[in-house]
């Protein structure tokens, strides 16, 4: 879980967001944004490449996973989720298969299965 991560700022951000989600509250948008960006940075480091675009609107999108490089237009593989789902995935509070099966994650295209890279913290 978040409290085991080496970056205390990220651990605190994740804890704040996950607690808010668990209480059906909206976390501070600045904290949520920082946590999303930090976890996407971790994913980029763990799965370098340009074949899958991971979108967490409205905060960020990154390209990851080795393979065919995406240059313009719609990428061949896309993963999209809201911030709450993404941060739960990144922290291990939600499993990839459950998130996809429930429709909380939309994943399409080759290499879009990120289960091998999650959780990140």
Secondary-structure topology with pairs:
Layout: H1 8-22, H2 29-46, E1 52-56, E2 60-64, E3 78-81, H3 83-91, H4 96-101, E4 105-108
Parallel strand pairs: 1-3
Antiparallel strand pairs: 1-2, 3-4
Helix pairs in contact: 1-2, 1-3, 2-3
Please indicate the percent range of residues in DSSP E strands (runs of 2 or more).
Answer: 5-15%
Oligomer: single chain
| CATH 2nd-level architecture | 2-Layer Sandwich
Task: Name the poorly predicted regions.
Answer: 1-5
Q: Biggest β-sheet, characterized?
A: 4 strands, mixed
Strand order of the largest sheet: 2-1-3-4
Please give the radius of gyration in angstroms. Answer: 14 Å
CATH class: Alpha Beta
Structural class: alpha+beta
Q: What name does CATH use for the topology?
A: Nonspecific Lipid-transfer Protein, Chain A
Count of discrete structural domains: 1
What is the tally of helical segments?
Answer: 4
Description of the molecule:
It is a single chain. The chain has one domain: Nonspecific Lipid-transfer Protein, Chain A (2-Layer Sandwich), CATH 3.30.1050. Helices cover 40% and strands 15% of the residues. With 121 residues, it is of the alpha+beta class. It has a four-stranded mixed β-sheet. Helix 1 (8-22) crosses helix 3 (83-91) and helix 2 (29-46) packs across helix 3 (83-91). The protein contains four helices and four strands; from the N terminus they run ααβββααβ.
